[in-house]
Specification:
Blueprint: E1 8-9, E2 18-28, E3 33-40, E4 42-47, E5 50-53, E6 64-70, E7 78-88, E8 102-109, E9 112-116, E10 122-125, E11 136-138, E12 142-143, E13 147-148, E14 157-158, E15 160-161, E16 168-170, E17 177-178, E18 185-193, H1 204-207, E19 210-213, E20 226-227, E21 233-254, E22 258-265, E23 276-277, E24 280-281, E25 283-288, E26 291-311, E27 315-327, E28 335-338, H2 341-356, H3 374-387, H4 392-402, H5 424-441, H6 444-462, E29 504-505, H7 506-525, H8 529-550, E30 551-552, E31 557-558, E32 561-562, E33 568-569, H9 573-581, H10 587-596, H11 610-620, H12 625-641, H13 656-659, H14 670-679, E34 683-684, E35 692-693, E36 703-709, E37 715-718
Parallel strand pairs: 6-16, 13-25
Antiparallel strand pairs: 1-15, 2-7, 2-10, 3-6, 3-8, 4-5, 4-7, 8-9, 10-14, 11-12, 17-27, 18-19, 18-21, 20-27, 21-26, 21-27, 22-25, 22-26, 23-24, 28-36, 29-32, 30-31, 32-33, 34-35, 36-37
Helix pairs in contact: 2-12, 2-14, 3-5, 3-14, 4-5, 4-6, 5-6, 5-7, 6-7, 7-8, 7-9, 9-10, 9-11, 11-14
Length: 719
């Protein structure tokens, strides 16, 4: 923990989107040397001019997290230069809750403090960056970044001690690891003409430009430098070969001071990277100085496969354009080997999808949002327990989510964040995820600490139940009654056109029944039998009410919506699946209800929520194993045949959401869980894998070998 360090910042008026530099000097005599550091909202460490690390854990003002960074590879005997870069966005988004700008750091040599942040540390604005209000990459991620290497370094002055006091804890998970530059291949080049008009969104500079392909020999000189000729400039498109997450890294030499546009994306559906879509700007404007330039941005990870440069210089030589990958160091002992090559590819791609969607916390997608959602992360946790044997990461994300409990007894939509809308069912899924964490990890003590949050969510939702035994949909302008991305269930009220509570939704009540049931299981595991009995009774009442009000005996299905006059509407696979999954379908109706999930007569379930459909089929009937296997081949196999190296947000890929669909979404790694839990039959029967249910793989996907890590480091295997 910090001994002498004080939170500091620039001695200047505070503004949004500010980049700062803090510099000093420390002596090194030899031995263990470590830096403790924290910041709002990001930091970057440089020792003797060499980049060391940057990855502030996503925290909030009530619980600050510090990192410990080993400096031994970067120091030399004697005096060493230290530069700390600080970045503070100060604007709410889905990945950041606005606080106050600061950095705090302290260097310890052999356990003794040798240098620390104080007003004696010199600081200045980082003149390389454009600051203040700027275009957004997305509303979820915050500001884009513009760099100008022609700027002179600003003058340094003593820093200001902020006077704020914070409660610090060490990072609860491992530090991310930055790798060497990712190989990138130039796959297209040519010249461009601008079609951008002043005042248009900045991303349009690439999106609207006229591109004309040229062979390399047509636009390079004998030395290999690119020449723009009579056009506005040269465009270059680089392919990293697969979806990646990392820090932008560009090394380029130009013949004069010039602008360079850098766009990034996951596909080339527009014959270019999609630099602009629906107000989103996946672009940075760089100003290069004559000669050699190195553009390296340590404060924002990019999610991408392709990088596009528009270079305005008469001549330019590109040494490298790509990223330095940044990954979370997951355990590697877990393993799965399948007999079928396609299913092995699907599993391997699920694994990479999961990996790219976890850094400081689970992320829905690395390209567009990088945000932690309770619903998305539940899928990621469940698959991750098998694929990575990773429990601490899930624990940290669950605690981060719990810290966002609002005055309406729901969690913020994202964490840590302050978001304008809220999806109530995501809070209910938090309770499900909390139970599953305890089931797989055996960590009762943590769940005890989180129990008040789970109780508050459930008790508040139970209090909304009306005389018919159902809870109405949520009202209020900030409530988004979203269940999944389908026409009926996306919360856009295509049928009833109302924002009040005068409607009952089957998915809402099924998710509620599920959360009540899981809270009962938590109580039972914590030996709170009276509380468990009460919750199970309420869950049973909800299940009966769901069946009574929404189920059609004649059709064998659950309707999605019911108005105050009892009129039913909309048949959706998710509704059918979640009602079955929550236990609302009695045994006498089960056969017909399951068959409706497979005959294609309802609005199809999407990738993320397919887990409820598949588990309902596999749990309640042995005959659907082949059907589920074939459906996974069709759905996930189709993403592979379309060139996917990670799995998409929805099956529509980049065309969905008005052309803003993500091609890497953690919630779509559902098959990875199914292969282990149902293919290999590895399921916990008691808390913490104290016992497991090893089933035969007869009639299921062929398993060569499957093994998962328990929390204690031992391996549960099946061959």
């Amino acid at each position: 923990m910090f001994q002498n360090a004080k939170p500091i910042w620039l001695n200047a008026p505070v503004q949004v989107n500010t980049y700062a530099l803090f510099k000093g000097e420390f002596a090194y005599k030899g031995g263990d040397i470590r830096l403790l550091i924290a910041a709002d909202s990001h930091y970057a460490i440089y020792v003797n001019g060499e980049y060391v690390y940057s990855a502030q854990f996503a925290d909030d003002e009530g619980r600050r997290v510090y990192d410990i960074v080993d400096l031994s590879e970067y120091v030399q005997n004697g005096n060493n230069d230290l530069v700390i870069g600080g970045y503070c966005t100060l604007t709410d988004s889905s990945v950041y809750k606005a606080g106050k700008p600061y950095v705090i750091f302290e260097i310890f040599e052999n356990g003794k403090s040798v240098y620390s942040s104080s007003e004696r540390v010199l600081s200045s604005v980082n003149s390389v960056y454009k600051m203040g209000d700027a275009p957004l990459i997305t509303g979820q991620m915050g500001y884009t970044f513009h760099m100008d290497l022609t700027k002179k370094e600003a003058s340094f002055a003593p820093s200001k001690e902020t006077g704020d006091e914070y409660s610090f804890i060490p990072r609860p998970i491992k530090n991310c690891v930055m790798k060497e530059r990712k190989f990138s291949r130039l796959i297209s080049q040519g010249v461009f003409m601008d079609a951008y008009k002043a005042g248009e969104p900045i991303g349009q500079r690439i999106q609207k430009a006229f591109l004309s392909y040229r062979e390399i020999a047509e636009i390079t000189d004998e030395a290999g430098a690119f020449r723009k000729g009579e056009n506005d400039g040269v465009y270059l498109i680089y392919d990293l070969g697969e979806e990646e997450t990392g820090l932008m890294d560009i090394e380029i030499e130009v013949s004069e001071d010039c602008e360079i546009l850098v766009g990034w994306g996951e596909h080339l559906d527009d014959m270019r990277v999609r630099a602009y879509v629906g107000t989103r700007n996946f672009i940075s404007v760089m100003k290069a100085k004559k000669g050699k330039n190195h553009f390296f941005h340590p404060y924002r990870r990019l999610g991408l496969r392709y990088l596009q440069l528009h270079i305005y210089a008469k001549k330019a030589f590109v040494s490298y354009a790509g990223v330095r990958p940044v990954h979370y160091p997951v355990p590697e002992k877990a393993d799965l080997q399948l007999k079928d090559a396609l299913h092995q590819m699907i599993y391997d791609t699920c694994k990479r999808t999961l990996l790219l969607c976890m850094h400081e916390h689970y992320e829905d997608c690395p390209w567009r949002e990088q945000a932690l959602y309770a619903m998305d992360s539940r899928n990621q946790m469940l698959a991750g327990y098998y694929v990575f044997g990773e429990y601490d990461f899930a624990k940290a994300s669950l605690e981060t989510l719990a810290r966002t409990l609002r005055s309406d007894n729901l969690l913020e939509l994202c964490a840590p964040a302050r978001v304008a809308v809220n999806i109530p069912t995501f809070s209910m899924m938090y309770v499900v995820a909390l139970w599953e964490y305890m089931l797989y990890s055996g960590d009762r003590e943590f769940v005890k600490r989180m129990l008040p949050t789970a109780e508050t969510i459930v008790e508040s939702a139970i209090a909304r139940i009306r005389e018919n035994g159902l809870a109405p949909r949520y009202g209020g302008e900030d409530k988004w009654n979203f269940y999944e991305w389908s026409d009926n269930l996306d919360g856009h009220d295509s049928f009833f056109k109302t924002t009040d509570e005068n409607r009952f939704d089957a998915p809402m009540n099924a998710f509620l029944a599920l959360s009540v049931s899981r809270l009962s299981m938590i109580y039972r595991a914590l030996s709170k039998d009276a509380e468990a009995g009460r919750m199970e009774k309420i869950a049973d009442q909800l299940r009966r009410a769901i069946h009574k009000n929404f189920f059609s005996e004649k059709k064998g299905c659950f309707y999605s919506f019911m108005d105050l006059k009892g009129r039913l509407s909309c048949l959706d696979e998710l509704t059918q699946a979640i009602c079955i999954y929550a236990g609302a379908c009695p045994e006498k109706n089960m056969k017909k209800a399951l068959s409706r999930l497979t005959n294609g007569t309802m609005v199809p379930v999407t990738l993320a929520y397919s887990i409820f459909k598949y588990e309902s089929l596999l749990k309640y009937s042995k005959k659907y194993g082949s059907w589920v296997r074939n459906d996974i081949e069709m759905q996930w196999g189709s993403m592979l045949t379309r060139g996917g190296t990670t799995f998409f947000e929805t099956i529509k890929a980049g065309d969905d959401f008005d052309r803003a669909g993500s091609l890497c979404h953690g919630w779509s790694a559902v098959p990875a869980y199914l292969y282990f839990a149902y293919g290999a039959g590895i399921q916990p029967k008691a808390i913490g894998f104290e016992d497991v249910n090893i089933q035969k793989a007869s009639g299921r996907p062929g398993i060569k070998k499957a093994q998962i890590l328990k929390r204690d480091g031992s391996v549960v295997s099946f061959r």
